[in-house]
Amino acid sequence: MSSQTSFTEDAAIVVQALNDYIQESAGRDAPVIRQPVLERLIEQLDLQQHIARGDLTGEALEQFVRDYLAATTRLHHPGFLAHQVAVPHTSGALGSLIDGATNNAMAIYEMGPAASSIEYFMINWMLEKIGWSGVSSERQSDPQSDHAGGVLTHGGSLANLTALLAARSARVPAFWKSGNPGNLVVLVPEQSHYSMKRAVAILGLGEDNCLTLPADADGRVLPSEMQQQINALRAQGRQVMAIVANACGTAAGLYDPLPEIAAICREQQIWLHVDAAHGGGALVSNKLRHLLQGIEQADSVVWDAHKMMRTPTVCAAVLVRDHRHLDHAFEQEASYLLHAKDQPGFDFISRTVECTKAGLGLRLFMTVAAMGEQGLAQHVEGLVERAQEAADLIRQRGEFELAIQPETNILCFRIHGDDHSQLEIRRQLLERGDFYISSTLYKGQRWLRLVFMNPATRLDDIRRLLDEIVTIRAGLD
Ligand SMILES: Cc1ncc(COP(=O)(O)O)c(C=O)c1O
Fold first, then answer.
1. I need a labelling partner for 403 at 20 to 30 A (CA). Which of 37, 102, 147, 281 fits?
2. φ, ψ (nearest 5 deg) of residue 470
3. C-beta separation of 473 from 425 below 8 A
4. Mean pLDDT, rounded, for 180-205
């Protein structure tokens, strides 16, 4: 913090600039995306000079923040439809600020009682949304109890890795000292996020041992063919360490049939991990939670608050039905941190890859507490409704094809033409800067992909987007 200007003055400068930025973005007064050349941007932002001068305060700070904001991707712009990243609630952003300023590395309780307590509270809140229940902190690590538990981690990818570590501790209790047995496989949906394969490889199982589950024509897991696959693997002497289901998948946002998958996992005593990083948001809505029916039968669940729940990045929950598997996933001793001590709280450190851990619960809590649970539910429902209305609109216009009726806030469609033209259309859209959309491969084809994250995006925006796509398409002929 500078000695020349007070923190409150600098903070006022930053908050004012952010407020102007949010208004400007919401009002479409600047492009949703702009991609200047990296080296030029480093120069424009005067990075080298600022480091040399150590002058980032007052007017210099104001100039820097405004230049910085001018080169951001504007999530508050109604044309932001590209990725599964929350348009953050300003109260949640204040949570990130408080966390940054206090810097309580709360993985051990004594380094952040308030942050730890809030994480504890929010984890229990999430467990209840699944249909599980937490316990009071003094019973949290009780090896005699099979209660549910969890932890917040820095992102869904790390959360998926952590969940698979818990699955391994359940399947191979001696893994920490003796390593992997060599015949473990993990079965994942055709539409699984790449972090699943990455986690399997990091675990040392080998990416080739991350196998694809049978799927229907839309890419949903096909439970009726799972048993055959499991039998065939067992006949080869392989052990299925975990089965993963999507709730929902990344590309098209489809939910796998959890009750049927769970029944097979239960019968075959195989760990069921549900990747609800994106679609877990539907759990907060009475209208939508049916999409995740059966999730309470999972062994582990990953749920990102920084996707559908307006929480600033990152805030991902790893939740397990029986806390003991997560507690056993990391057996390491660190004498300066992990030792018997009198404490009134709970140390999350035994459940995470991280040692220093941000107070992620605060940004989630402050978001939910500002919106209220009902407000949050309405937000999630609004995103899904808008995707469905947009699908109706696309269906009415003959030049477009819808990949599938959206179940959540992700929608895939294409305009007549080959895969290359879809990519070219996206490229030109981004260059124009009115809309920022993504694209995906799905059912063997390239699709344009909309992810409805911004509560300010209206159907009229989608009408304008479709018109712009038609214009660009005409220019390709
Ligand atoms: C289904 C699913 N799982 C996991 C992830 C990874 O989450 P993160 O980006 O927070 O690492 C994503 C990200 O899009 C996802 O869609």
1. 281
2. -60, -45
3. yes
4. 96
- Give the closest residue (by CA) to ligand 1 atom 9: 156
* Probe target for ligand 1 pocket from 85, 161, 195, 410, with the most ligand atoms within 8 Å of CB: 195
User: Which residue has its alpha carbon closest to ligand 1 atom 8?
Assistant: 156
Q: Phi/psi at 37 (nearest 5 deg)?
A: -70, 135
Taking alpha carbons only, the member of 410, 382, 364 closest to residue 89 is 364
pLDDT tens digits, residue range 227-282? 999 999 999 999 999 999 999 999 999 999 999 999 999 999 999 999 999 999 99
- In the reported structure, the alpha carbon of residue 471 is separated from the centroid of ligand 1 by a whole-number distance in angstroms of 33
Can you give the pTM of this predicted structure?
0.97
Taking the C-alpha atoms of residue 136 and residue 154, their distance in angstroms, rounded to an integer, is 24
Return the pLDDT at 336.
61
pLDDT mean across residues, the chain: 95
- pLDDT value, residue 2: 47
Tokens encoding 446: 């390239």
Taking CA atoms only, the protein residue closest to ligand 1 atom 7 is 156
Contact 350, 327 (CB under 8 A): yes
